[in-house]
Amino acid sequence: MEFIVVIPARYGSTRFPGKPLALIKDKPMIQHVVERAGEAGAQQVVVATDDDRIANAVRSFGAEVCMTREDHESGTTRIAEVLHSYGIDDDTIVVNVQGDEPFIPSANIQQVARNLHENSDFPMATLAYPISDELDIFNPNVVKVLADKNKRAMYFSRAPIPFDRDEFIAKQEGGANHIELRSLTSIYLRHIGIYGYRAGFVKQYDTLATTQLEKSESLEQLRVLWHGYPIHIDVAKHAPPHGVDTPDDLARFA
After folding, report:
1. Quick one: which of 55, 100, 178, 195 is 20 to 30 A from 109 by CA?
2. Half-sphere exposure of 115 (CA within 13 A, CB side)
3. Closest C-alpha among 224, 200, 24, 201 to residue 104
4. Domain harbouring 16, CATH code
């Protein structure tokens, strides 16, 4: 199985400007992500950015960088530009690894590529992991996903899905702030922000109309579901750490 990794990286994060260049153990965050992709066995690893500061840092540690436009609305559209620029064959498996996941297990990168390789009916694949902390269920920064018995994504949301009607409403009416998750915990899945696609589908995604769903939830993958394309969901073999969204998150690792 062969695959490539493209890492979208932008400087202008609202909550954490310059995040890809933040130092973790004396290395910029983006270097850790590149190293995880290399450990996964990717045939090629490319950082896609529109910022010269990020590009210069990537080149300084010997990695490959592709300069892209500034107006991309998501990492997937930025990757589409890279694939067009490089003339990547449509059948190539491409894994999108977020630039703020410095400690994502390399096995998870390989897993999402293999899932796509082994499931030809899916143009796109991603991973999830069981939620064990009840606060994460109600945290809008933790994206939840539901999948059917055939591992097809049903929906992604920042809201608590599924909504346990009897449990949640009973607690709310009783004035309780604490929710007992019971056995239902096992079906709450946190979406992990890693995607595998065939290159041809990434290019096609770039032509699909934006949707109200993706705008409302601010989740680019909802465009895929709304237009009728299936997304393969699998439980990650290794528990991924949370990504770095804020300087406070960085303090846990630095």
Report:
1. 55
2. 28
3. 24
4. 3.90.550.10
Residue 181 confidence (pLDDT) above 90: no
Q: Is residue 138 part of a domain?
A: no
Query: Rounded mean pLDDT of 34-52?
Result: 97
Report which DSSP code applies to 136.
Answer: H
Contact by Cβ (8 Å): 49, 68: yes
State residue 48's pLDDT score: 97
- Catalogue the E-assigned strands of 149-229: 153-157, 189-198
Which amino acid is present at 178? H
Rounded CA separation 185/130 (Å): 8
pTM for the complete prediction? 0.90
The DSSP-derived string for 25-80 is: TTEEHHHHHHHHHHHTT-SEEEEEES-HHHHHHHHHTT-EEEE--S--SSHHHHHH
CA distances from 67 to 2, 31, 49, 76, 232 (A): 24, 17, 5, 15, 30
Interval 156-168: pLDDT, tens: 999 999 887 776 6
> Binning pLDDT at 50, 70 and 90, where does residue 53 land?
very high
pLDDT at residue 17 greater than cutoff 90: no
